Amino acid sequence: MSVLEGIPIDLQIVLGSTSIPIRQVLKMSRGAMIPLDCGQDDPTRLYVNDRLVAEGRILVNGEQMSLEITRVVQTER
User: Fold this and answer.
1) pLDDT, mean over the chain
2) Could you tell me if 66 and 59 are in contact, meaning their C-beta atoms sit under 8 angstroms apart?
3) d(CA 11, CA 7)
4) What is the per-residue pLDDT across 19-38, written as a single tens digit (0 to 9) for each?
């Protein structure tokens, strides 16, 4: 495994997305809410190098957040 340890990957955990004008972003202050295009029970998506690899749900334990994998996405070869 030591050969793999130095290989960088881009990991993204996506809760949802939205599109808002920059003027709205500039007017935001601490505590502002940004609505996303997903619901509370929708899965969170895990991307590795821009490829969807799994879905899951966010868990919060005190100050620590984690992603529980609920489904691994099958890729076509």
Assistant:
1) 92
2) yes
3) 13
4) 999 999 999 999 999 999 99
Q: Which of 47, 45, 64 is nearest to 55 (CA)?
A: 45
Report CA torsion sign: 64, 70, 76, 77: positive
- Quick one: pLDDT band at residue 1, thresholds 50, 70, 90? low
CATH superfamily of 11-72: SpoA-like (2.30.330.10)
Query: Residues 10, 11, 17, CA angle at the centre, nearest 5°?
Result: 115
Name the pLDDT band for 55 (thresholds 50, 70, 90).
Answer: very high
Q: How many Å apart are CA 23 and CA 30, to the nearest integer? A: 16
Asked if 55 contacts 70 with a C-beta cutoff of 8 angstroms, the reply is yes
pLDDT at residue 64, rounded to an integer: 95
Radius of gyration of the chain (CA): 16
